[in-house]
């Protein structure tokens, strides 16, 4: 369970401090996946950085399972838009980096091999990131996050740099692996479609400074052939209206 | 890529030798002996005369580079990682960087004598600045996002260092050392012209004084070849260690 109450974050600009998040309150139950949607500059990424322990200066209370944020004791998997791979490590070492930091040097075991296989990158182990396509790099980032068996998964527009076809494939693949693990997940996106496809709840952020406009239970989550359903379109309309009004 | 480098080296070697040979044929005077005679002289005298001097020079330059790297790389990393240290030290580095270090030779020799220590200090002085500045800039140019995934994993300072800072800046540091090498060899030559009876600098100047031009040229060729070998070794290390580039 992640509890966020009255979270505010200021950024120090050259002469002034800029309010990025304004009194955000949000509860995320364990094992749930929520999507955060909002315009650029609405502080969605900042929110993730707070949960990840990267942004340490903030006001308000943020706890994970009742304890304050501490990346050293928590297992937080993070998947970024630019993949967050280290260019000097091959696929194997990149995929094992998370668990290496947490538990010391590792070899591929059955579980990590299974994940790599699921993501269809188990044949690319000796390649470096520059030798991979965007979709393959993102798969390595996903493998890295799942292999470390995280308590919390934070995803910052992970699929936005991919082409449309690859993106839908990756969304489906991600959801498939996620279902087997049910990790508490916060997924930041600027795509209404992605928010509907991947979020059991959708949190809509306002433009700068970021506030929570609405938290919506998503009836479309885990629906078969989602994009062909009427409900998908009506939900999509509803979300767009909230975003436009802001 | 590798074969292209080698072809370039062989091509350059042929051009230099041809030009040298043409010059010696044109002048036909003992001050420019033919490359063939010099080569024969090297073969005849290397083991007996030149090899000891090569070992001395090689030892000095490798020790100098190693010491410069051991001092410069950590300092550059600290400056690149911690803004405070950078603000404190950068002005000093920038202020002292343009001072021609060779001009400090008399001071160094007055303080540390004519022996090995002074020679080492001079090489370190030349190489270390480039290494510090390059290491610092290499760390500074690592994007913040690269650190983010590791931070979210709760990586320690040491892990951040071994997983990110060191591998990210290694190529640039090696390049800086490789480029500083040319100056370092010149300095080595200069410092070996006095206070010692060993080293290629001594050998070349001594041959000159003895008007033994064949020996002198042999020395120049061997010293150049030594420089080329170190240069290539660093280049090869770079290719091997930074295969990900």
Task: Write up this protein.
The complex is a heterodimer of chains A (246) and B (245). Chain A is an alpha/beta fold. Chain A has two domains: 2-74 and 151-245, 3-Layer(aba) Sandwich (Rossmann fold); 85-150. Chain A contains seven helices and ten strands. In chain A, the strands form two sheets. Chain A has a six-stranded mixed β-sheet with strand order 6-7-8-3-9-10, with helices on both faces. A four-stranded antiparallel β-sheet of chain A has the order 2-1-4-5, covered by helices on one side. In chain A, helix 5 (164-181) links the parallel strand 7 and strand 8 (184-189). In chain A, helix 2 packs parallel to helix 4 and helix 3 packs antiparallel against helix 4 (134-147). Chain A starts with a strand and ends with a helix. Chain B has helices at residues 2-27, 35-81, 83-96, 105-112, 116-140, 144-152, 157-191, 200-209, 213-241. Chain B has two domains: 1-32; 35-241, MetI-like (MetI-like fold). With 245 residues, chain B is an all-alpha fold. The mean pLDDT of chain B is 91. The two termini of chain B are 13 Å apart. The longest helix of chain B is centred in the N-terminal third of the chain and has 47 residues, at 35-81. In chain B, 83% of the residues lie in helices and 0% in strands. Chain B has nine helices and no strands. The A-B interface holds A 49, 52-54, 70-74, 76-78, 80, 82, 84, 86-90, 97-98, 101-102, 128-130, 148, 154 and B 145-146, 148-155, 159, 163-164, 167-168, 242-245.
């Amino acid at each position: 369970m992640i509890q966020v109450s009255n979270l505010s974050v200021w950024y120090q600009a050259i002469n002034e401090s800029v309010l990025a998040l304004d009194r955000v309150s949000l509860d995320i139950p364990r094992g749930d996946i929520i999507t955060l949607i909002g315009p650029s500059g609405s502080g969605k990424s900042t929110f993730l950085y707070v949960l990840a322990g990267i942004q340490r200066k903030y006001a308000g209370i943020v706890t994970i399972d009742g304890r304050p944020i501490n990346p050293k004791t928590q297992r937080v998997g993070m998947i970024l838009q630019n993949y967050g791979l280290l260019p000097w490590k091959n696929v194997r070492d990149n995929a094992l980096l998370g668990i290496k930091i947490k538990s010391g040097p590792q070899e591929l075991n059955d579980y990590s091999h299974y994940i790599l296989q699921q993501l269809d990158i188990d044949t690319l182990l000796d390649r470096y990131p520059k030798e991979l396509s965007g979709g393959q790099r993102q798969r390595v980032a996903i493998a890295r996050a799942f292999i470390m068996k995280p308590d919390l998964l934070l995803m910052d527009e992970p699929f936005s740099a991919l082409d449309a076809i690859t993106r839908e494939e990756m969304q489906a693949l991600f959801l498939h692996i996620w279902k087997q693990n049910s990790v508490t997940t916060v997924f930041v996106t600027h795509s209404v479609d992605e928010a509907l496809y991947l979020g059991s709840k959708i949190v809509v952020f306002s433009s700068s400074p970021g506030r929570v406009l609405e938290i919506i239970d998503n009836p479309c989550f885990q629906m078969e052939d989602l994009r062909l359903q009427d409900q998908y379109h009506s939900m999509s309309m509803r979300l767009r209206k909230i975003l436009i009004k802001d | 890529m590798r074969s292209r480098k080698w072809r370039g080296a062989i091509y350059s070697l042929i051009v230099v030798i041809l030009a040298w040979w043409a010059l010696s044929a044109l002048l036909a005077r003992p001050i420019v002996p033919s490359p063939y005679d010099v080569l024969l002289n090297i073969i005849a005298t290397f083991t007996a005369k030149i090899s000891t001097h090569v070992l001395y020079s090689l030892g000095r330059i490798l020790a100098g580079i190693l010491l410069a790297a051991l001092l410069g790389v950590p300092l550059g990393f600290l400056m690149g990682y911690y803004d405070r240290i950078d603000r404190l030290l950068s002005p000093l580095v920038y202020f002292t960087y343009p001072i021609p270090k060779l001009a400090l030779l008399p001071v160094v020799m007055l303080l540390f004598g004519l022996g090995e220590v002074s020679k080492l200090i001079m090489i370190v002085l030349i190489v270390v600045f480039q290494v510090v500045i390059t290491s610092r800039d290499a760390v500074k140019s690592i994007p913040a996002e690269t650190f983010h995934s590791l931070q979210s994993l709760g990586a320690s300072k040491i892990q951040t260092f071994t997983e990110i800072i060191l591998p990210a800046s290694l190529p640039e540091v090696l390049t800086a050392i490789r480029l500083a090498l040319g100056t370092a060899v010149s300095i080595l030559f200069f410092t070996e012209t006095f206070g010692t009876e060993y080293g290629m600098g001594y050998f070349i100047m001594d041959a000159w004084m003895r008007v033994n031009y064949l020996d002198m040229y042999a020395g120049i060729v061997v010293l150049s070849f030594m420089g080329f070998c170190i240069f290539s070794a660093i280049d090869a290390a770079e290719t091997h260690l930074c295969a990900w580039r």
